[in-house]
Write a structure and sequence with these properties.
The chain is α+β, with helices and mostly antiparallel strands. It folds into 2 domains: about 45 residues, no CATH class; about 160 residues, Sandwich (Jelly Rolls). It contains 3 helices and 12 strands; from the N terminus they run H-E-E-E-E-E-E-H-E-E-E-E-E-E-H. Strands 1, 2, 4, 5, 7, 10 and 12 form a 7-stranded antiparallel sheet that branches. A hairpin with a 2-residue loop joins strand 8 and strand 9. Helix 1 crosses helix 3. About 30% of the residues are buried.
Length: about 230
């Protein structure tokens, strides 16, 4: 005997959307794995997640701040911010992130950040920063923020099966107020349009409407019960 679902649309809608909607990975906020409290600076690696190759001058990588000298002030650029998280990295600096270890926590395929020079640099400190991103020692991005008043820049780097993400900063010009920062530095899972099932909750409600979702779910549950 075929079961009829028409008399209970709301429960079926809820059950179907929960059963068929994809599970999305949480973003990995890299500053949370530096090994220090927010607003402080770190000078030692945090294995197995990080390895410090070149320690920033003068006092380490800032956890959600430009550095220890910033007094815990959140990262902020001339044109954006403040940001709740990020990595302060006064040149010269280099830190490696163990991507294989992060894969045990979440699924990701992209590194994203907003790079710039923190406003902690005063008007007399005018020099810039060169930001470099490497994957397994291969340079995949280099960007110059030429002065302390230059705007910030959003970056997005695809990640495949690489093992190491390296964030590197160098002086652009001579050393003078080059307070670079990787704001909102994250490992994220970017879904392509083809990978989002048409039975997802958002598509069902906005594209098909509630009735459409119920109709699509009807066959799913009847197939289970018959």
């Amino acid at each position: 005997m075929k079961n009829s679902l028409s008399f209970q649309p709301l429960p079926i809608l809820i059950l179907c959307t929960l059963a068929s909607s994809p599970a999305y990975a949480e973003d990995i906020i890299l500053s949370e794995f530096l090994g220090g409290a927010s607003g402080t600076a770190v000078t030692t690696p945090n294995p197995p997640f990080t390895n410090i190759v070149d320690l920033p001058d003068p006092d380490g990588f800032g956890v959600d701040t430009a550095g220890g000298f910033a007094g815990g002030q959140l990262i902020e650029f001339p044109d954006s911010g403040p940001f709740d998280n990020g990595i302060g990295a006064h040149p010269t600096s280099r830190i490696d992130f163990n991507l294989d270890e992060f894969r045990t926590l979440e699924t990701f395929n992209t590194f994203t950040s907003i790079i710039g020079i923190d406003e902690v640099a005063t008007s007399s400190q005018t020099q810039g920063v060169t930001f470099n991103v490497l994957l397994d020692e291969i340079l995949v991005l280099t960007e110059d923020i030429p002065t302390s008043t230059s705007g910030s820049l959003s970056i997005s780097i695809p990640i495949d099966n690489q093992s190491t993400l390296t964030l590197d900063t160098q002086y652009f010009g001579f050393p003078n107020g080059n307070h670079g920062a990787w704001a909102d530095a994250k490992l994220v899972n970017v879904e392509s349009p083809e990978s989002i099932p048409e039975s997802s909750f958002l598509f069902g409600l906005l594209g098909l409407g509630i009735v459409g979702v119920i109709n699509k779910c009807r066959g799913y549950f009847e197939g289970l019960w018959n």
